[in-house]
DNA sequence: TGACATACATAGAATATCTATGTATACTAT
DNA sequence: ATAGTATACATAGATATTCTATGTATGTCA
C-alpha cells in the first residue's frame, strides 16, 4: 500500500562504510541484517547513489579479488565522507527529534 | 544542498488532527511551532495530501467561520483515520529503530 | 490605500526510490 | 555436464513525494 522508503540512503551507506570497506552487494545484505530486515535496499537504488557519492568524493572505489577469485568492487569512505556522515547523523537526530516532538504533543492531549 | 524532506507527511498531519480539528494554514504553523521550525511544510505539499486523506476517508472537512467572519476549512480525523495514525506511528517507530540500529552498529566499531 | 499576513488551491519541476531488465560469475544438486 | 540459484554490478524507465512557482481572495494595520 505504502512504500517503506529509505530516504536517508546517504546516511546509511556512509555509516556502513565507516565501520569497514564493503562492496555493493554486501552493503545490501548488511543493511538488511543490521536493521533486522526493515531495510531491503534495491540495486537500482544503491548503485546510482554509490556512484554519486564517489563523484562527490565521499567514497573511493577499488577492485579486489575475493578468495573465490572473483573480482569485487570495494568502497572506502574518505575523510570528507566522514565529515558528510557526521552532518547527516546530526540532521537525522534533528529530524528524529522533531517527529517525536510532534507525536508527543498530540499524545499529551489525547 | 540536500532537501530536508518530510516523508512522513501523513503521520504528521494525522497526528496534529488527533489533538484537535485544524484548518490547513494552521497545520503548517503548528507543525513549525511544535517541531521548533524543523518542519516548514509547504502549501504545495499539504493541500494535495489533505485532499488525498479526505478521499481515503481518514479525515473529513467542514466549513466554519472564524471570529473575523472569514470562512475556514477545518479538518477532523475519522475513526479509520485514527487507525491509520496508529499504524503510521508504529511504522515510524520501526523505521526509527532500524536507522538507529545501523548507526549504533558502526559507532560500536569506530 | 498599500503592504502584509492569512487562506486555499493547482500545475509543473525536482528528487528519491523502486521495478524491470541485462550481463556475467560461482556454487550446488541432480 | 548442466540446470538452477545466489552472487555481483549496472542502467533505463516508472512511480511517488515534495518543492517551487503561481494564482486568487480576504482581513488587518500603518
Quick gist of this model?
Two copies of one chain form a homodimer. Chain A has one domain (2-104): Orthogonal Bundle (Arc Repressor Mutant, subunit A), CATH 1.10.10.10.
Tell me what the structure shows.
With 110 residues, the first copy, chain A, is an alpha+beta fold. Chain A has one domain: Arc Repressor Mutant, subunit A (Orthogonal Bundle). The first copy, chain A, contains 4 helices and 3 strands, in the order αβααββα. Chain A has helices spanning 9-19, 24-34, 43-55, 79-109, and strands at residues 22-23, 59-65, 71-77. In chain A, α1 (9-19) packs across α4. Chain A is elongated. Chain A starts with 8 loop residues before the first helix and ends with a helix. Residues 1-6 of chain A have low confidence and may be disordered. Chains A and B meet through α1 and α4 of A and α1 and α4 of B. The structure holds a DNA duplex (30 and 30 nucleotides).
List strands and helices in order, with pairings:
The structure is a homodimer of 110-residue chains.
Chain A: H1 9-19, E1 22-23, H2 24-34, H3 43-55, E2 59-65, E3 71-77, H4 79-109
Helix pairs in contact in A: 1-4
Chain A binds a DNA duplex (30 and 30 nucleotides) through helix 2, helix 3 and strand 3.
Amino acid at each position: 500500500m505504502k512504500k517503506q522508503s529509505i530516504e536517508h540512503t546517504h546516511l546509511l551507506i556512509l555509516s556502513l562504510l565507516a565501520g569497514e570497506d564493503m562492496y555493493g552487494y554486501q552493503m545490501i545484505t548488511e543493511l538488511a541484517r543490521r536493521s533486522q530486515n526493515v531495510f531491503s535496499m534495491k540495486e537500482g537504488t544503491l548503485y546510482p547513489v554509490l556512484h554519486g557519492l564517489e563523484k562527490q568524493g565521499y567514497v573511493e572505489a577499488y577492485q579486489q579479488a575475493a578468495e573465490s577469485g572473483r573480482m569485487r568492487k570495494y568502497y572506502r569512505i574518505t575523510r570528507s565522507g566522514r565529515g558528510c556522515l557526521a552532518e547527516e547523523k546530526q540532521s537525522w537526530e534533528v529530524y528524529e527529534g522533531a517527529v517525536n516532538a510532534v507525536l508527543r504533543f498530540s499524545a499529551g492531549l489525547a
